[in-house]
Automatic annotation (TrEMBL):
Native source species: Phreatobacter cathodiphilus
Keyword Cell wall biogenesis/degradation belongs to the record: no
PANTHER family named in the record: BLR1237 PROTEIN, TRICARBOXYLATE-BINDING PROTEIN
Protein name: Tripartite tricarboxylate transporter substrate binding protein BugD
Signal peptide start and end residues: 1-23
Keyword flag Transcription regulation: no
Family: Belongs to the UPF0065 (bug) family.
Length: 327
């Protein structure tokens, strides 16, 4: 081996040693967690709970940065522009890393290949709700009413690409209807009009709608998961209520920029696992109606396969509805 080859080999060996060395001392300063939505929403609340617990495990503060806009794609794209050094991570969700592929024709990132997957954080049950005055009291009666009133029925949601939008698209596809869609600038305004009786129904996460259901200001027909939700144990599942084909949960996932060294990803995954195993975190998530994911999904490989499956699931539903969003 000549001198040039020796120098090149030495350089490669030095570079190869950077990642393990960095991982041994990582982290040495605060970590920023991007939440691609406004403060106070379900993803933000979950992110803050998990970030607090991860801070203890990592020995460094995990600082929340809310970067809202374009259905969460603005914040997601921001992460792809940051250094893959483990000091920038994010919480993505069903909209930013699955539905976005079909909703945004000019999406500036690939939800799978442009990120380093850390692990699934939680899943959230979807609840089918309606205004108090709607002439239906069970899911079966609601389906019958919706089919009979397809032309005039209106579905409120938090904006194109939101969870409340995409999950109701799936409901409509399951039932075989295409009612009117009424977009709002967030779940709050949509819920206000549902309570006031200005719109007919809403599909959204239990964490968002449970307070109004408990208060009796809206109707709850069914939760779209296999078992009843701990936050609303009296509400039947869609299987129990006669619509077993409508099974849908939304989720939050932790990601880092593409190229983040594997040892650092492993350290972040370890901290995530520790957070989800914490009794206080479990209790707080359960109170919100959020569920912990299966263990095999709290891994980089498991999350990657999960994202690919979710994209394959949501793309045909959204394309069939003919819905796109500007970018």
């Amino acid at each position: 081996m000549n001198r040039r080859h020796l120098i090149a080999a030495g350089a490669l060996a030095a570079l190869a040693g950077i990642a393990p060395a960095a991982a041994q001392t990582y982290p040495t300063r605060p970590i920023t967690m991007i939440i691609p939505f406004a403060a106070g929403g379900p993803t933000d609340v979950v992110g803050r709970i998990v970030a607090e617990a991860m801070s203890k495990s990592l020995g460094q503060t995990v600082v929340i940065e809310n970067v809202a806009g374009a259905g969460g794609t603005t914040g997601s794209n921001r992460l792809t522009q940051l250094q893959p050094d483990g000091y920038s991570i994010m919480i993505g969700h069903t909209g930013t890393h699955a539905a976005s592929v079909a909703l945004y024709p000019n999406l500036r990132y690939n939800p799978v290949s442009d990120f380093a997957q850390i692990g699934l954080v939680n899943t959230n049950a979807i609840l089918i709700t309606a205004k108090k005055a709607l002439p239906a009291n069970t899911l079966a009666e609601f389906v019958t009413w919706l089919k009979a009133n397809e032309r005039t029925a209106n579905n409120a949601h938090a904006g194109i690409g939101s969870v409340s939008h995409t999950t109701c698209l799936l409901l409509h596809a399951t039932i075989g209807v295409r009612p009117q869609s009424v977009p709002y600038r967030g779940t709050g305004p949509a819920m206000n009009d549902l309570v006031a009786g200005q719109v007919d129904y809403l599909c959204d996460q239990v964490v968002n709608v449970a307070p109004q259901v408990r208060a009796g200001t809206i109707k709850a027909f069914a939760v779209a998961q296999a078992s009843r939700n701990s936050a609303l144990p009296d509400v039947p599942t869609t299987t129990e209520a006669g619509l077993p084909a409508y099974q849908v949960v939304v989720w939050n996932a932790m990601l880092a920029p593409k190229g983040t060294p594997e040892p650092i990803v492993a350290r972040l995954n370890e901290a995530l696992r520790a957070a989800l195993a914490d009794a206080n975190v479990k209790a707080r998530l359960a109170e919100l109606g959020a569920d912990l994911p299966a263990d095999n999904l709290v891994t980089p490989a498991g999350l990657r396969s999960f994202l690919e499956a979710e994209i394959a699931k949501w793309t045909p539903v959204i394309k069939a509805a003919g819905v796109t969003a500007g970018n």
